[in-house]
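Sample log: Acetyl-coenzyme A carboxylase carboxyl transferase subunit alpha.
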Amino acid sequence: MKHVLEFEKPIIHLKDKIVELKKITKDSEIDLHDEITTLEKKLADLEDDVYSNLKPWDRVQMARHPERPTTLDYIDELFTDFMEFHGDRRFGDDAAIVAGIAFYKDQPVTIIGHQRGKKTKENIRRNFGMPHPEGYRKALRHMKQAEKFNRPVICFIDTKGADPGKESEERGQSEAIARNLMEMGGLKVPIICIVIGEGGSGGALALGVGDKIHMLENSTYSVISPEGAAALLWKDATLAKRAAESMKITSYDLKELEIIDEIIPEPKGGAHQDIENQAKNIDIVLNATLDNLQRLTTKELLEKRWEKYKTIGVYNE
């Protein structure tokens, strides 16, 4: 069954009505063409109204949509000859992080991204996209390899957060995240980060220190989930919708605060409605960004990265 978000229910109801009328017209001699045309016009207006006025909580739901394209989906659409590597050479492999090399327009690049599942079995295998410390160490291993061979690094961010379990803490979760932040700050090759779904807490930040940070229009990026913020602020996780309104977690909020660099538009109804078109939108931004970054010397690249993060959080009222 197709997953329907709450704010989309009027749209789905109207679509079902149009399908029903078309079936009646096809199966009988009753001509309902005028009624169908009227409803299709009403549907187009309704979609424009709904998707042009999404609230922060609506975008949270879009970012979490179970059919939303994942890192591997975009790798298939944007890159060629992808070769995935596994393991951190210390503990094991973490399926919540995908890492490997590929060609982007005939140029070798390193790709690293969070990977969640779309079905229950795959979600369990990938820990619902919440990496363990070995996942972050695998990511760092490939970043350092990219630096050695002068390959740009492209990171896809899509996680609720890092795995919070006891075993992860015992294996050094906090240290693994902190080390990635430090190492990415000084990596001598271009780093492009793209938030494609949820960008949650330190779990997202560990892949989020880049020369440029872009976000899909309906993705989110925040230090904590709306549910977590509501639980902390008001001792009531059910007030997540209220928290989302005040947290400034949408792409438009973060663009205004100059935390991200560019908003990548999504098809009407979200990225899951048309992955090919979504990939084309990403491709336009990725290509231009990579071209601009590769024009810089290593010294210029690192200086601009330092300036970028030094000014985040500084603003004038």
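Observation: The mean pLDDT is 93.
Observation: The first helix runs from residue 9 to 27.
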